[in-house]
Write a structure and sequence with these properties.
The protein is an alpha+beta fold. It has 24 helices and 30 strands. It is elongated and about 120 Å long.
Length: about 750
């Protein structure tokens, strides 16, 4: 047996050795003329496969005797085993008994064992009659030698609690659990062995959670009522409290059937449980549906991952334990206990999930009104779907600055669905998906009991449960935990919706993203760390706290009925001001047409952003606590300049013409019959603006063909030569501008 034995176990093993030695010394060799020999041979051809499994023997019953088939290589020069141990393992899968034989050799102890149910015929016969050991040729089912051994003096030792422990009757998982306990991986064990160990440990914990969430529930007296409502919804698996065996078997049976869509049973179960109004039993059945999905047979002992392939089928992805290396030991521990989507293409076999505790501690949350945040995400998705004119390059990375545990995101389009694989600083992943056509999204993360316990401790330290009764504490916990999960969901949803909108809708993508092939500096998934990938560099940075700021700028309730985009229309006598404005923001106006600038209709309207302005820019906000204004990047400086102009009564006609050929113009603003071209220079204080900058702006103004106001706004200062040239050419300037000091901002009326 693996691991360290306690004193009681050591005493038992010593006694077993003494009794086993006596039993093996008295073993009787069966001769070929024994009538049982032919029966043993006949059974061997039926029960023993061509290749006998490592570490496991097969068995059969002849008359009243148990026959064990063992490969000849373990005969060890015609020497029988030194001892045998009959051991009962109680666990949440199924109580299981091992009958183990040991050979003490000079280098190591060889062992071979069989796995039986405690109430099965094999264990009963080993207690009532002598057993037969039949040694089989390694590559064929031929009996070479056979011995009759009386092990009845060897008693059955029970490990842990009694076989009456609550379990789900999964013998396959119980067998793997015992094998793992008998052969626990060491520090130098292979990644595959660690992968298997992590899998069965996680499966054990999740099955136990599915049992205890009902058996030890604070509202246990209400569970039978929930069960009756579940029966009404055609879920007939609720017979005897706490229902775990029936529900687990029902879930496994559901997933073994054939459906038109792999996810159909998951949707059906969730729908029925929701209609029943049985939240606790709904949680249990969803828990067991995931356990049935990640069964021993489906995962092939934890070396494969079942995933949804996007076409309605189940995709069994073989994990690359070698590529995972040391992360193989924690792969299953951190994997969200729910259906993974597009794992083969969107994640990759050599990548590992993010640490769950780190994710839930650091993930950005939505700090505004939850319902308004949900509406904002849906609005952005609706706009993206309606105005889609581009696709997301497959596997495109988008870095996230100051995103907490989210360092970057990799995007894939699968028909109508966009899969987002978020990357943490260590290269781990968290998945989220969004379907703009349906206005839905989902974070593929499922907080484990460990995560819930930590969140509960956090609430407790905050005093949420102080002076409350047990029922009140439970109600507070449900409400606060649900609110926390909603804020997490909305925060990710708004960010992802804005990102997809920018990829699909923004006409001039280079203003928002700069696509480059990079192999360094940008955080990527573990398996991509040495591969060239497409990195889309944003011209905005993000902060951990998401708020209602974007809501104030992107309200569908006021935008859709009132906004009119810029366009041209027929007009014989177009005004020079309109033609100049069109040129300033890049519109070509044919003869016989005039330019209609962007405007609003109706009353109570607020300023809207153009389709060519990134929604991500609206989500970006300056990081709190940054006392040195020169640390703000140039995009924030431009945005603050636009806000300053608006506060002075100007309308922003165009912002950020292009960083490649903007002709010295960053913002085009209008006020009644006035038009202004604004150049923003976010430079460090020790860098000065020379005459060439002023000359560039004057040239841009001259190309429009009409006298227009030209303005330079800078965080630095102009040289004397630049100021002189600006005065001569009618260019206004505002220097040493610091938007963090609002009271010191100049006036431009």
């Amino acid at each position: 047996m693996g691991g360290t034995l306690d004193p009681k176990e050591r005493e038992y093993v010593a006694e077993v050795k003494r009794r086993s030695k006596k039993a093996f010394d008295g073993a009787t060799r069966l001769l070929r003329n024994d009538t049982r020999w032919h029966l043993i041979q006949a059974q061997a051809e039926r029960v023993v496969p061509r290749v006998i499994f490592h570490d496991e023997f097969r068995s059969s019953v002849i008359g009243d005797q148990l026959v064990m088939y063992i490969p000849e290589s373990l005969l060890d020069a015609a020497r029988l085993p030194d001892r045998a141990i009959l051991y009962v393992w109680s666990n949440v899968f199924h109580p299981i008994t091992t009958l183990s034989f040991f050979w003490d050799c000079t280098k190591a102890t060889k062992s071979y064992r069989g796995y039986f149910l405690p109430d099965g015929p094999e264990v009963d016969r080993s207690k009532r009659a002598p057993i037969i050991l039949a040694f089989i040729a390694d590559n064929r089912s031929e009996v070479l030698q056979a011995f009759e051994i009386d092990l009845r003096p060897v008693t059955c030792f029970s490990q842990g609690s009694t076989p009456e422990l609550r379990h789900v009757s999964d013998v396959e998982a119980a067998r793997l659990y015992v094998m793992d306990n008998l052969n626990k991986p060491l520090s130098d064990s292979s990644p595959e062995l660690w992968l298997r160990h992590g899998y069965i440990t996680r499966l054990y914990r999740e099955v136990e959670e599915g049992i205890l969430c009902i058996a030890e529930n604070d509202f246990v007296e209400t569970i039978p009522e929930e069960a009756e409502r579940m029966k009404v919804q055609r879920l007939k698996c609720y017979v005897s409290f706490p229902y775990h065996r029936e529900v687990y078997a029902y879930c496994k049976e559901l997933l073994e059937k054939k459906y038109d869509h792999f996810l159909r049973p998951f949707f059906d179960v969730s729908e029925h449980a929701t209609k029943a109004g049985s939240p606790r039993l709904r949680y249990q059945i969803q828990q067991f549906m995931a356990c049935a999905l990640y069964s021993v047979s489906t995962t092939r002992n934890g070396t494969c991952l079942p995933s949804y392939d996007g076409e309605g089928n189940l995709d069994i992805v073989e994990l690359d334990a070698t590529a995972l290396r040391s992360r193989a030991s924690v792969f299953w521990e951190n994997l969200p206990w729910s259906v993974t989507h597009f794992y083969r293409d969107a994640v990759g076999v050599g990548n590992f999930p993010s640490n769950q505790l780190d994710f839930y501690r650091q993930v950005p949350l939505w700090h505004g009104d939850i319902r308004e945040g949900q509406e904002l995400a849906k609005q952005l998705m609706a706009e993206a779907f309606a105005l889609k004119s581009a696709i997301i390059p497959p596997g495109a990375y988008h870095p996230i600055d100051r995103g907490g545990c989210l360092a970057a995101v990799r995007l894939h389009e699968f028909e109508k669905e966009v899969m987002a694989t978020f990357c943490d600083p260590a290269g781990g992943f968290i998945q989220a998906s969004m379907c703009p056509a349906d206005g839905t999204w989902k974070i593929h993360a499922h907080p484990s009991r460990v995560v819930k316990n930590e969140i509960h401790e956090r609430f407790e330290k905050a005093g949420l449960f102080a002076g409350k009764t047990g029922l009140e504490c439970s109600a507070i916990w449900d409400a606060e935990f649900d609110s926390l999960m909603e804020r997490l969901d909305v925060g990710i949803g708004v960010f992802l919706a804005a990102l997809i909108r920018d990829f699909w809708v923004v006409e001039r993508r280079e203003k928002i993203f700069s696509d480059k092939l990079q192999t360094k500096k940008v955080r990527r998934l573990h398996a991509d760390r040495f591969e060239p990938v497409t990195i889309y560099l944003p011209r905005v940075r993000y902060v951990t706290d998401l708020n209602d700021r974007a809501r104030n700028h992107l309200s569908s309730k006021t935008r859709k009925p009132h906004q009119v985009n810029e366009h041209i229309r027929r007009c014989e006598n177009a005004g020079p001001a309109q033609i100049a404005l069109a040129k300033a923001i890049g519109f070509s106006v044919p003869k016989g047409y005039t330019f209609v600038k962007r405007h609003r209709r109706g009353e109570g309207q607020i300023e809207r952003q153009y389709r060519s302005l990134s929604a991500l820019q609206l989500l970006g906000t300056p990081p709190p606590g940054d006392s040195k204004s020169f640390k703000d990047d140039w995009l924030e400086f431009e945005r603050n300049t636009a806000h300053w102009l608006q506060s002075q009564g100007w309308e922003i006609e165009q912002w950020g013409a292009s960083r490649r050929g903007d002709r010295g113009v960053d913002i085009v603003a209008s006020k009644q019959d006035r038009l202004a071209l604004v150049q923003c220079k976010y430079w460090a204080p020790d860098m000065v603006i020379g005459p060439h900058i002023v000359r560039e702006l004057v040239g841009a103004r001259s190309s429009i063909g009409i006298q227009i106001e030209a303005v330079i706004v800078t965080s630095s200062r102009l040289t004397q030569e630049a100021k002189k040239f600006a005065s001569e050419t009618g260019v206004k300037w505002f220097e040493n501008v610091d938007y963090l000091v609002r009271s010191a901002l100049p006036a431009f009326e």
